[in-house]
Amino acid sequence: xxxxxxxxxxxxxxxxxxxxxxxxxxxxxxxxxxxxxxxxxxxxxxxxxxxxxxxxxxxxxxxxxxxxxxxxxxxxxxxxxxxxxxxxxxxxxxxxxxxxxxxxxxxxxxxxxxxxxxxxxxxxxxxxxxxxxxxxxxxxxxxxxxxxxxxxxxxxxxxxxxxxxxxxxxxxxxxxxxxxxxxxxxxxxxxxxxxxxxxxxxxxxxxxxxxxxxxxxxxxxxxxxxxxxxxxxxxxxxxxxxxxxxxxxxxxxxxxx
Length: 257
Hints:
The protein is α/β, with parallel strands linked by helices.
């Protein structure tokens, strides 16, 4: 058993998850990487090791109820502690409210909401022991729902509520819990979305990428590293008194107070 500081990052094969794993590798000695894409995870693990942290990989689907047990048990057996859990995994289908099937609703909820819920609960005793931190990633659709993003909005709103409930228990148990609400971030997944969306709207991909921020009332897309810097702060000693917060980082997309 070691006394290394250990962070678990889900969705770590790409996008915000990958950027967060690399950011935390500067401050934590061990990064446990979780995602479904094994090749992507191994690439991230190599980058984490280059920075100087140890990496362990779990290529698992968090929609499966047994996955959290495997991750937490394996992490504790190898490292003996968990200091931070960052729930980032979860892509929810962008399908019109009136066209989505029950299966599509359930699939989006299963990964982002229930995966984070199960993993946080399974890690809770270890987080209590270390006075650790949890962050759950939501999204700005939660605060500005649209018909084409109904499942995204509903899932992200539930994430904010779930984080708040965990934070109330965390005040009693010494576990810090917050949620982060990013606006539009340029990830590989978003790039792929525009490659499919643009031709259907008689636009080039470049035109679509320019058009979206303008319509959202922001100057540009965010970068994964900008979200990762905020997450790094939230699980640092400097942010220890922050708990139960829902922190927006959206370039001014949400106009309300």
